[in-house]
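Appendix B. Worked example

We walk through a single record from start to finish. Start with the input: the chain for 3-epi-6-deoxocathasterone 23-monooxygenase-like isoform X3, Populus euphratica, length 367.
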Amino acid sequence: MMMIRLSSSKYKTPLPLGTLGWPFIGETIDFVSCAYSDRPESFMDKRRRMYGKVFKSHIFGSPTIVSTDAEVSKFILQSDAKVFVPSYPKSLTELMGKSSILLINGSLQRRIHGLIGAFFKSPHLKAQITRDMQSYVEESMEKWREDQPIFIQDETKNIAFQVLVKALISLDPGEEMELLKKQFQEFIAGLMSLPLNIPGSQLYRSLQAKKKMVKLVQKIIQSKREGRAGIVSMAPKDVAEVLLNDASEQLTDDLIADNMIDMMIPGEDSVPVLMTLAVKYLSDCPAALQQLTNENMKLKSLKAQQGKPLCWTDYLSLPFTQTVITETLRMGNIIIGVMRKAMKDTEIKGYLIPKGWCAFAYFRTRI
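Next comes the structure step. The output line below is what the pipeline stores for this chain.
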């Protein structure tokens, strides 16, 4: 039976085994280098063998208790705000800024979530995404050559980023899109970096890149605001316009621009990785690939006979395709872990998580 005891005093129970590494740097460099290698789980696996399923470390500027134990991780994630609160690496919070939807709370957060959530469910956006996805995929495939390798993750990153940016700020492929993409690559490189903001550091370069992106997005937002001046009602075409339509004085152009950039992150990371994994899993199972191909080609033939383009509901009508999507999401969990900050000394299964320390509930990937 799992024993849970909360204590207001420090260190009545010994800390888990492990090392805090170098002063300030801790073990961040080792953690990041493993994360970008072909064996991202090696950092955790090595320490788990040395210290056990729960161990101490120091990553991203914070002393941290890492849990690879299912019971301990479950308790960390299910505890209320009196025990643990959400926490993020210092490099990420500095890059996101105080106005990020990840970091704000209260009525403003609920307002933004409600506005954006409703728009993402709208028939207008679903129709636009379906058209854009088909268009960008066709454009990408026209450049493929039989005598050259196709890097699926690079292709999916390019397509997903373009689709997402179009939905956020209505920016089409072109010179500004390429400029945005270039700066975004530098920006996202700093999300997992040492929280050291000095010239030459990755965090410094990433912050400079974000400033350039904000300037570009603010220019687009200002153009939208001027174009809508004097118009009583106009259906929003993108997320930026949804927020511009809101009468709240809290939704400033700076806040909107910051959040448009933060919301581009899935187009660089989670969505492309999952799309790439879907291709890998299907390649490993020829029977599933054939069934998926047959189902989609049948739909394509039917739409051609009707002389109609593919729409959102067409994809939802494909049962095996939906099964492939669901199974990819299940098997390809790309979230490596979740961080929480301890609000008081907490003992779980004989392990102490001191007040003020981070608790990192780690999920081993199945790639």
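Two observations about the output. The radius of gyration is 23 Å. Confidence is low (pLDDT under 50) at residues 1-9.
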